[in-house]
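Supplementary Methods, section 5.1.

A reviewer requested that the exact input to the structure prediction be made available. We therefore reproduce it here, unchanged from the version used in the analyses.
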Amino acid sequence: MPTTIVRNRLPLRCLVLVAVWVAGRLPAAVAADPGSDAAVVARVGDTPIGWPQLEAALLRGNVPAMPAGPQRQLAEAVALEKLVDEILLQGVVDKEGVKVDPAVVDASIAQLQKQIKDRGGTFATFLTMTHRTEAELRRQATLELAVRQFVAQRVTPQAVETYFAKHRRELDGTLIRASHLVLRPDLGRGDVAVDECLARAAILRGRILQGEITFAEAARAHSAGPSRRRGGDVGFMPRYSLAHDEFAKQAFSISKGDISKPFVTPSGVHIMQVTDAQEGSKTLDGLRAQIEQTLAQETVRDTLAEARRTTAIEYGPGVVHFDPATPPAGSAPRRVVVEPQPGGR
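The structure derived from this sequence is encoded cell-by-cell as follows.
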C-alpha cells in the first residue's frame, strides 16, 4: 500500500453552497472500462460514489493539469473525502428527520442567480464552469440548509454560555506568563531520539517537583532554547499567537505554579511552568458570534467523526484516499494511501 504522509492537518469546514472541489487522476481500471464495477470509486454504507462524481470534482479543481506527486495525491484525497462527508452528513440529517422547505431552497438558488447576474455572468455558464447540473446544485443547497438546521438545534444559548465558562481564559484576552525547558532530539535518529528526550524531560520534571532543583536552574542547565539565559522565561502570551498551538495550549491548561508533563512541538520536547497570569476583559456578549461559529464547526466535525465510526467506508482499487487510521481530528498527521489495483498496477 503506497503511502504519503501529509504533515499539515487539514481543518474541517462546513459545506458551502458554491464549493471548490479538488481531486486527481482516473484509476487505470476505470479508464479501461468506465461501465465496470471499478467505476464505483468508493462506497459509504450502501451508497456508491461513482467515477463521474469524482471526475466532476477533478475538473472543478483543474487538477488533471497538476504533475504527479504528493500534492496531487493530497488533492485527490481531499476531493474524495468531501464527497464521502456529503453522504455521511446526508445520512445524519435523514436519520434526524431534518426537513428543508423547498421554498427556502428556491430562495437560496435565486439569490445565487442574482449574485451571478450582478457580476455580469449567467447561471448556465456558472453550471458549466462548476461541472454541475441545476439538480445537483439544488441537492447540494438542500443538504447545506439541512446541516445548518441540524447545527442550529445544538448551538443553543445555553451551549454558548457553557462553552464560554469552560474556555474563558482562552477567549477573554487573558495573558499567561510561562517558562519552559526544551530538549532538542537528533532528528536523524527519528522517534527513538524523541522518546529519549521525553524520558529525560520526565526525569527533570520529577527532580523539580521533588525540590532537588528549581525550574529556572533546570532551564539554565539543560534547555537548548535561548530562553535558558532567563531561566526559561518566555514572557506573556495570548492563547492564539505566533507560538505553536500545542505550546500555547499547554500554557493555558495548567494553573499558576504548576509544571506541565513533557510535550512535543516541532521545536523539541518541552516542560513548562506557568508563573503569572493577567485576566482578560472580553465578555460573552462580545464573543457570542465567535463561539457560535466554533461550536458549529465542532458539531460538524464530531458528527462526521461519529458517522465515520459507525459507517462502513470502502475504497476501490487504485483510488487515492486518506488512511482511516489518520482521521481529520486525530493527533496523527493525515496519511494518503492508494489501494493496489488488480495485477499489481
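Residues 42 and 48 are 6 Å apart (CA to CA). These observations are discussed further in the main text.
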